[in-house]
Every structure is written in C-alpha cells, then in structure tokens.
Specification:
By secondary structure, the protein is of the alpha/beta class. Helices cover 48% and strands 15% of the residues.
Length: 830
Amino acid sequence: MTAQRDASAAPAQVRQGRVSPERTISGNAVAELREAIVAKLAYAIGRTPANARERDWFAATALALRDRIVDACMDSERSIPNKRVYYLSLEFLIGRLLSDAMNNLGLVETTRAALRELGVDLGDVEAAEPDAALGNGGLGRLAACFMESMASLSIPAIGYGIRYDHGLFRQSLEDGWQKEAPETWLAEGNPWEFVRPEATYSVGFGGHVTMSSVSEGVIRRHWHPAETVRAVAHDVPVVGWRGRHVNTLRLWKAEAEAPVDLARFNGGDHVGALAGRARAEAISRVLYPSDSSAEGQELRLRQEYFFTSASLQDLVRRHMAERGDLRSLADHAAIQLNDTHPAIAVPELMRLLLEDHGLNWEDAWHITTNTLGYTNHTLLPEALETWPVELMERVLPRHMQIIYLINWMHLEEQGKHGRGNAAQLASVSLIDESHGKRVRMGHLAFLGARRVNGVSALHTDLMRSTVFKDLHALDTDKIVNKTNGITFRRWLHNANPELTALAIEAVGPEVLDTPELLTGLADVASDPNFQSRYAAMRRSRKAALANVVTERTGIAIDPSALFDVQIKRIHEYKRQLLNVIETVALYQAIKADPKRDWTPRVKIFGGKAAPSYVQAKLIIKLACDVAKVVNADPDVAGRLTVAFLPNYSVSLAEAIIPAADLSEQISTAGMEASGTGNMKLALNGALTIGTLDGANIEIRDHVGPENIFIFGLDAAGVQARMAEPNYAEAAIAASPRLKAALDLIESGRFSPEEPGRFRPIVDDLRHNDRYLLTVDFDDYWRAQRAVDAAWNDPTAWWRAAILNTARMAWFSSDRSMREYAEEIWRVRVG
C-alpha cells in the first residue's frame, strides 16, 4: 500500500475495536456472513478470494450487508405511513457508508470476524470505500445526519438530491496552491445503490407557454418545453439505529431523452451528435459548477430545478397512488426545503397542481403553503440566491409567470392592509429591482412555506430582524428556531470508539440508545482515574492523527503538544485568516523570546475553497507558506508547528475530530448560522475557542462559560463597529502586535520569491476588513494565551474536556428531528 493510501486508510484503522450494539457474536452469524461475502465476491464482483483487491472485498461486504438492510427496508415499507417527510437538499455529504451500516445493524464485530476468517482486515476494507462527496460542508453533512436520525427515530422519510458523477472536487496542494481535480467516487460503481428505471421523470427547460379555455372564465396555461431531460432515480438505503427502520435517499441522475442524434452521427458529425447528451448529463456531472460565468449560472439553475421537479413529480405520483386525491397532500406529506436551492419548489408544485392535476389557484396555493417548509442557513446576502429575471424567463418561462402572479397577489394583499407605500412593497416583493430585476429565492421560499426555521437561536433572531425583517412583520408566527444537531452514531460511536467505551463504563450501555445519558459523565469529570483514562484515549487518537499528518504532508508533529484545529470550508467570514495572522504573531513572539516556557502547539487546518474564490485560495496559500517558514525555523522547533491537510472530507474529519484539543469556531459574530463542526469537536472533548456566533452561544450555555474560550464582539457589537468610519485602521494602530504581523506578511517574509503575493490580503484588512479581523485580533490573542494557561493545568483541562462531552447531549440530531417532527412537520415519531 502507498503512503497516500495509508493516509486515507487511517480513519478506518483507528476504529479497530469499535463499540457496537452487538451483545454477543454468534458463530453461526459469522459463518453466514462470511459465506455471503464470498458469494457476492464471486457472483456479483466476479473475483475469487485469491485475486480480490481491497476494493473488491469492500464491494462484496457492502452487498452482503445491503441484503440485510433490504430485509429491514421491506419491513419499513409494508404499511403506508399516515404522513411522510420529503427532504429536498442539493447536498448530502454522506461520506463512507460501510461503518454506518455495520454499526447501526449491530454487525461490526460479526463483520470483522467474518473477514478475519477470510484473511482480510476490516480496517483495510473500510478504507477502500470512496467518500461520497455529494456536499460542500456543513449543509450536506447536516442533511446526512438528519436522514440517519429520521431513520433511527422511525420517521418515514425520503431524501431527495442529485447523484453527482464527481461531487465536490478533490483538492491537492501544489506548492501551497489549491488545485482541483474531479472526485471519481463512482469510478467503480456504488454497491449501496439501487437503480430505479421505473422512477424516471421528464424535466423541461425553455420553450413557450400557450393558453386555452377549458370553460367559461377558466383559462389554462400549457408549458411546451424546448428541451426535456430524463431524471433517473438511484436509491441508497439509510438504515437507522439497531436496524429498526430504513428510509431512502433518492438521488437523481440526468440523462438525455435520446442518447445520440443518429441522423447527425450517420452524417459524419460524430461529436455534434452527442451534444444534446452532454448538455443533459452536465446537470448531474459536478456539484456546484462555478457560477462566475453566465453559462455557469444557468447550469446551477438547471441543477436546482432538475432535482426539485423530479422530486415533486415523484412524491405527487406516490401520494396519488396511495391516497388518490391531491387535496389531502398536506395531511400526508411534509416537504422540507434545505436552504434556498430547492426554493423553485414553490412555483413547480403550483404548476403541477394547476396544469397536471387541474386544481384552481386557491386550492393549489393552500396545498402548497401547507405542505412546504423552508430551512434558512445563511444571513449573507450573497448566499441568499437571486436569479436574473431574464434568465428565469428563458429557462423556466412558466415558472416566471407563476412567480409574477404569486407576487402580484402578495403585494395586492399588502395594499389592502395599508402597507402599500413603495418602500414597503419593494422590501417584501419577490422581485428585487435595485440592480436589475432579480428573483429573490429566499423571499419565494418564505411566502410558499408554512414554517420557516433558523438553525440556532441567534441565527433565528437575526432572521427576524435582518434578512426577513419585513416579511416577518407580515406573519410573526412563521419563523421558528430549530437548532442543528449531529448524529452521535457517526460522530461518537464510529469516530471515537475509545471514548464511547469510556462512556459505557461510566454511565452504562444505555447511553448508546439515549444520548441524554451522557450527562452522567459529569459525575466522574473530577475523578483522577477517569481523567487519566480520558487523557490516554485522546493521546492515542492524537498519535494516529500525527501519522496521517506526516503521511499526507511530510510534517512531523508531536502528539504531546496542544492540537489546535480549524477544519471547515475556506471562507473569509469563517476567518481562517485570523487564525493564520495569530500564528504569525505567535511565531514572532517565540522568535523574540525563545527561552520562554512556551506551550507547545500544533496548528492544524483543513478545508476547501470554491474554485472561483480567489481570496480564499490566497488564504490557503498564506497558511501553507507560513507553515513552510515556521516548521523550518529551529528557534520555534517543538513550540509551534503548522500543517494544512489537503482534501478535507468526512473520513478525514473522523480522524481529526477525536484528536483535537482546541476547536476553532471564530467566525464574525452574526454571520455563521449554526455550525455543526463545533458540536462534533465539543462532543469529542475539544474545548472551543470562539465568538458568540451561531450555535457557539448554545454550546456555551450547555457546557458552561468556564469550559469554553469566548472572545470578540457579539453580533450587536459587530453591527455597531461596522458603522464606525475607519475601524480597521484604528484597530491596527491600537495593536502593535497585529501591525507587526501584518508588516511581516506584507514584507514578503513568507513569499520571498514573490514579495507582493499577500499584499492584497493586507491591503484589504487595512482599508476594508468586512469581517472585523483587525477589531477582534487582540481579544483573540488574549483568549489564545488563556488556552495556553489552561493547557498547562492538566487536571482542570481534562475536567473541562469531560464536561464538554457530558453536556453536549442536547446537540444530538435526534433531538433536532423530534422538534421538526412535532412542531413543523406534524408527523409521528416512532
């Protein structure tokens, strides 16, 4: 095995001996599974044990386990539920599924034993599974957690998304610069999925709309698309805890209506004959194509409509088969829109009800607004999608007509209630005319949903007072809060079996089923013996991560040092740059006083920048160049090390999170909706350094302010400071340490071959600093030195770490799903 392969395998390897719901391992069960794996290897893969590769063993094992999932799936589908949840998300960052399936079925040790008898190591088999990179970060991982929790709670649900051929790109670093390559997770097929050709729908684009009179005074409109694309369903089963319930993740693949234009092909235009196919298949080719061009914008709109339309057609057909009357749709279906990407569901559901099923406008609108729910995930204006009206009229002409009518009726209603002045109407209109006409998809989702929810208490309050302030005033009951959560099966049981074993010993095996019992760990947080074992668990995970870091980057790190971790999508508001600048300042401080008793620290970064996000890529380059200088300087050896791990993924997160001592959650207050990495890290005992932003506030409230390091302005302070002139210049002038760090970066110390490389970063901070790095820097430095002091008191540190684990029980996605089910979807749990 190559070094790169070993590095990717490490997350699976450190899961050896993982805790599982299995009570005993039956010899018959082991023999049965062993024979099933051998049979799949022979008859499905076409290999013998002698010539099978690890990828073949993975596929055979997955297929053998899939058979057992299907049995549970059939049990789940034997009766029609009273109400079903349909979860529409452009992202499902599911990662590797083998460990989830084994764990939730209670077959970890049985599978390990069966493979051992075949001379195969389970860790190697797990490592052979490619990550399904069907998401960009928190949004997609949240959707995956929610699907697993719904299955575990026996909430009938179907997730809908896109089966991207390549998903999010594979990141490499060439001399510190991010390079993107296609993620080929489907290169050898996906043994978990079932192709459902019978569930294929036509999705239209372009064309024109005609009218016809069906009766006196009743006019019907008919859309005649210029292009149609086939959406073919591929189902991935989602098995819940202990295999009691199985739901389905249905992913759509785009195909051309005709695979080849035979006349053009036979005429000699062999490439042109495939142009239609290439255009259609581009829809499900790559997650988030760059929208820096007009063509890229159109492709994104096509992606969003493609999966939304196919999903709505599918669920409407299912409802008609089960109930026979669409007027009862809201009673038996809850459709959740995960962010604004599927907001086109509002006019699309209206279109289906009006045109395909002949309902009148009033009935269709009543059904739509009582069936749809909308989760908002961002307050950033650039992330609240808007589409040029011209683009919408060209790509989806019928939908633009429906949006105009929804908007007209909406604005007419405001006039009836005395809210008819131009400024008020402009603020709540679905069409933004301030910089050319654009459709506000967030406003559209808001109007079309029965409930709109934020994902943390702060985020929800800010929704009411900022982006949806005027819409909220029209319906003050519509916005509700549902703080995010994470599945403990993946992020504790699977990712950290040693910690799970400690929890079972301390509070009993029931903790596997009831996360709330983790609170019992607080009783042993001060116990020296438990602290020692907790510290040993962390040290073991840090040693494993150190191997991964060395194999992936060539950088050697000391497992006894404090592991300071920031792993998330690279974005200016998440402020990786603040962390890098503090690293430079710390480097300068150590250089100035090398004999001081500095706290050994390893700074670990991970995350991808969007391909067209120039500033984010430059931040990655700065982090890598700082690492190159710091790691080569003998004056700081053993005191400060910096590593940027390429190609951050779910599997890599499973290796990093249990090894983290400090969790960096340092976004500008008021800009991070919630975060879920903060929950995963705190659950595994990392102490958080962060701003009062997103779910950090609720984490502080649960773990206690003495067990978290808070710094910086709060959301109100951020707004007040941004209103002041020249706040960045004033902050830099008031901080000699910050000024020295910026001067060193600007001087070319970290880029001697190109001294001006990072001047755009420094200039932006001096004259713009939209995310207030300069304003928060000194308090961030203070908080980091408080971290140093805390680390040097091991008894207090491990007590705080244990209390973090104990008090994170509330952040289970099971709790989140119960709240959605009871208060938004009105569906029975269990």
